[in-house]
Amino acid sequence: MSLSLPTDYPRLRRVKSFQELIRTPFSDGVNAFVWERSLPGDFREVVERLGAGEGIVTLEESQLRLLRVSAAGRVAIEGMLADLKLLQAHELAPVLNCIHDYPHDDQPGPVATDVFSFHADSAPVEADTWLCTYHGAPSEGLRNEDSQRRVDNPATRAELLKLYGGAEDAGFREFLNENCYDLHYAARPSAQPFAFGLGNLWRIATEWPGCPVPPCIHRAPKQLPGQPPRLLLIS
């Protein structure tokens, strides 16, 4: 199924520059900003030159600059490094990853908590999440109105209470939070997830005390056999 970027979702706002992306505050329910871009360069060649690997491989600038690539591959590398330095210049801590696969929650119990599950990011202080997929399957978003927290499903909550082994009290809420169960969401039957797209730079709201908007719900795409690795910038 092809997932397109929605044009009429009021929580999503398109911007036309990096300065607009970083300076516009989250307000009026808007919890995601996207700077849509069509980036030049051959990102596929970069992945091929990086070679085989496992899990998540963090890419260093020196490693990328030593790759033997064509002019188009060099353009792709310089584009990724430019994004990296742009975020670093604004006191963010971005990393470039080549993702062959993520860890799976092999024994999820009532609620899976791996990145393939729709979830919200969280932080103890004000923070945003920045994302850009350069190659491979992009991240996916879910409208808040099309979601339900998994811990709010009565059957799931009953299973979690049984796992907790106590009453529904402050300790239970702490148990949900410590295990990140309260950050994961289920899509409603009529939900229409959307893809973040390739080359687009995103800034999405996280869940932190006092955040003026609900967090942006998203997930990593399933890595299917034979699919190429992802090139991802994340902060």
Fill in the keyword field for this structure.
alpha+beta; 6 helices; 21% strand; three-stranded antiparallel β-sheet; globular; 12 strands; seven-stranded mixed β-sheet; 235 residues
Give a verbal description of the structure.
This protein has 235 residues and is α+β, with helices and mostly antiparallel strands. It has one domain (12-234). Helix content is 24%, strand content 21%. The protein is built from six helices and twelve strands. Strands 1-2-10-5-12-4-3 form a seven-stranded mixed beta sheet. A three-stranded antiparallel beta sheet has the order 9-6-11, with no helix packed on it. The longest helix has 18 residues, at 71-88. The model has no long low-confidence stretch (mean pLDDT 94).
- Percentage of β-strand residues: 15-25%
Number of helices: 6
Describe the largest sheet: 7 strands, mixed
Per DSSP E runs of 2 or more residues, the count of β-strands stands at 12
Radius of gyration: 19 Å
What's the helix and strand layout?
Layout: E1 12-15, H1 18-23, E2 32-35, H2 43-50, E3 56-59, H3 61-65, H4 71-88, E4 95-99, E5 128-135, E6 140-142, E7 147-149, H5 154-164, H6 170-178, E8 185-187, E9 194-195, E10 201-205, E11 217-219, E12 230-234
Parallel strand pairs: 1-2
Antiparallel strand pairs: 2-10, 3-4, 4-12, 5-10, 5-12, 6-9, 6-11, 7-8
Helix pairs in contact: 2-4
